[in-house]
Write a structure and sequence with these properties.
single chain, 238 residues, mainly beta, Glutamine Phosphoribosylpyrophosphate, subunit 1, domain 1, seven-stranded antiparallel beta sheet, six-stranded antiparallel beta sheet, 15% helix, globular
Length: 238
């Protein structure tokens, strides 16, 4: 698979929706993830990322403008032991709770489907990172309707064992803007991952469409120690 420039990918798509990047830094020292949200409506743009004890959550930037919390307010990132869960919806909690009961990532997601936002039927995208004793692997998942037909839920899981240095994978909800919004197609895209969290955060944020971008979260986890460093960028403030 061709290595893509994630910044160019984002610049060429005015509305990728929500996106997850997971990979390994070029120097091989860090497990890396990024998650961003975008919005077209006032309700979906009216959000910020805030830190929690085990990750982050979305909150209304202006509570008076929040008209429908469904599919808008959730925890995109949670940590369960040596696992970091990253998703675009409340399936974060499903994965957390069921993996805590010894189910696998894939088994946990079999209890969920795409989002109930007809006619878009937005895909549920999810990722999990496992860092333990100097080893690292990750997986990405997408649950989507069958080309817009909600009668069938298509489920795809992609696993990456001992990922290569400087390499990551990018999955997002929409191929681009539209009515209805066209769901992501194909495998997660192979993208380059740098060493510096500040550089990665700044370049991702700059590449996202100025009108539609809302919030960005980036985390680098030291593979040897498990220590994490995170960055949050919000377009709107509380």
């Amino acid at each position: 698979m061709k290595m893509l420039n994630i910044y160019e990918e984002l610049k060429e798509n005015s509305y990728p929706g929500r996106g997850i990047v997971i990979g390994k830094s070029e120097d091989g020292k860090s497990a890396v993830t990024a998650y961003f949200i975008m919005g077209r409506s006032v309700n979906s743009r009216n959000r910020v990322f805030t830190e929690t004890e085990d990750g982050i959550k979305t909150e209304a930037a202006d509570p008076s403008k929040l008209t429908d919390p469904h599919l808008i307010i959730y925890s995109p990132v949670r940590v369960l032991g040596n696992k970091t869960i990253v998703t675009n919806g409340d399936q974060t909690d499903t994965i957390y709770e069921l993996m805590d009961k010894q189910m696998t990532f894939e088994q946990s997601l079999r209890t969920r489907e795409y989002e109930d936002d007809a006619p878009n039927y937005t895909p549920r995208i999810s990722g999990i990172m496992h860092v333990e004793n100097g080893t690292y692997n990750y997986a990405l998942s997408i649950l989507k309707s069958a080309d817009g037909n909600p009668d069938c839920c298509e489920r795809f899981t992609y696993s990456y064992t001992n990922p290569l240095c400087g390499t990551g994978h990018f999955i997002h909800t929409y191929m681009g803007d539209g009515n209805p919004l066209p769901s992501f197609e194909g495998e997660p895209k192979k993208v380059a991952i740098p060493n510096d969290i500040d550089e990665f955060t700044a370049n991702l944020w700059d590449a996202l469409n100025e009108d539609n971008k809302v919030s960005l979260f980036v985390r680098f986890i030291d593979i040897e120690t498990g220590k994490a460093v995170s960055k949050i960028v919000n377009k709107y403030t509380k």
